[in-house]
């Protein structure tokens, strides 16, 4: 049977990749390859150390916990330790001007607020964006929202998570009024799998 499967793979042009450091199995669970992290367009401050945008590659294969404040949109602040990041977010949240209930964000599948869009009200979250369809019309839907968010319009606060169920690295944004930005600015383009919106 294994020989038949291997022969079919050769005929179809598909071959099993050899195990390497990036995709070696752990026990019986295969681990996917470590992908290069997208390079943001703004400087970084990671664990208190200022870095050039391209230096984010130092953290490939590890989650980063990032945040941006509309008052300082040209700096991407982050931590390698989630507990430290949550403490900093709580500290900043305590001194921030609270948003009122009824705020929202709008996510877009294209840059600069173009293409498919979806509004999410404050107080709502989506734990798996594969369950939310986008671009639906007379002839069906274009797909789902998993890994396609390219820009957002903030009228509230949100955290974008790299994995479903609010897991993996994340990017927290403190919005305000009509703050539109491209996710590529912060190295988070097309990687959001769950989202939480709060006021």
UniProtKB/TrEMBL annotation:
Residues 1-21 form the signal peptide. Keywords: Signal. This is Rhodanese domain-containing protein. It comes from Kutzneria kofuensis. The lineage of its organism: Bacteria, Bacillati, Actinomycetota, Actinomycetes, Pseudonocardiales.
């Amino acid at each position: 049977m294994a020989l038949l499967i291997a022969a079919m793979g050769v005929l179809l042009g598909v071959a099993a990749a050899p195990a390497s450091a990036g995709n070696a199995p752990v026990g019986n669970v295969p681990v996917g390859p470590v992908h290069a992290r997208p390079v943001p367009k703004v400087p970084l401050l990671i664990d208190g150390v200022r870095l050039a945008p391209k230096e984010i590659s130092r953290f490939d294969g590890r989650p980063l916990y990032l945040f941006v404040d509309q008052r300082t949109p040209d700096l991407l602040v982050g931590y390698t330790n989630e507990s430290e990041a949550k403490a900093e977010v709580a500290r900043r949240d305590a001194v921030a001007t609270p948003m009122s209930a009824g705020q929202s964000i709008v996510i877009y599948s294209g840059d600069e607020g173009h293409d498919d869009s979806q509004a999410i009200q404050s107080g709502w979250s989506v734990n798996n964006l594969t369950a939310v369809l986008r671009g639906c019309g007379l002839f069906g839907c274009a797909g789902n929202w998993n890994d396609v968010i390219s820009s957002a319009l903030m009228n509230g606060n949100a955290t974008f998570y790299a994995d479903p169920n609010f897991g993996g690295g994340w990017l927290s944004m403190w919005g305000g009024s009509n703050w539109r930005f491209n996710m590529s600015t912060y190295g988070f383009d097309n990687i959001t799998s769950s989202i939480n919106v709060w006021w």
